[in-house]
Amino acid sequence: MRLTEFTELITAEFGERSADSILVDHVLIEFGGRTGAQAIEDGIDPRDVWVAICRDFDVPRERW
C-alpha cells in the first residue's frame, strides 16, 4: 500500500484531526509499542499499520 492510499483511508475513516492524532499518539502493541507514524518511518508497510489500527479501533473488516 502506498503512503498516499494509507493517508486517504485513515482520514476517511477517522476524520483529519483524529487521524493525525491516532497516527502519532496511539501505540501499536504489535509493532513493539511504536506509533503508526514510527512504524511507517521504520519501514513497516502502511497496509500492516492500517490493519493494526483497524483492529485496535474496531473498524469493520470490510473497510480494511
What would you note in describing this structure?
The chain is mainly α and 64 residues long. Helices cover 61% and strands 6% of the residues. The chain is built from four helices and two strands. The protein has helices at 3-14, 16-25, 36-41, 46-56; strands at residues 27-28, 34-35. The chain has a two-stranded antiparallel sheet. A hairpin with a 5-residue loop joins β1 and β2 (34-35). α1 (3-14) packs across α2 (16-25). It is globular and about 25 Å long. The protein starts with a helix and ends in an 8-residue tail after the last helix. The mean pLDDT is 95. InterPro entries: DUF3046.
- Please tally the β strands and state the result: 2
Give the helices and strands as they follow along the chain. HHEEHH
Biggest sheet: strand arrangement: 1-2
Mean pLDDT over the full residue set: 95
| Regions with little confidence, pLDDT below 50 for 5+ residues | none
Shape: globular
Q: How would you sum up the major sheet?
A: 2 strands, antiparallel
Estimated helix fraction: 55-70%
Cα distance spanning the termini: 12 Å
* Computed CA radius of gyration, to the nearest angstrom: 10 Å
Tally the helices: what do you get?
A: 4
Helix- and strand-based class? mainly alpha
Strand fraction equals 5-15%
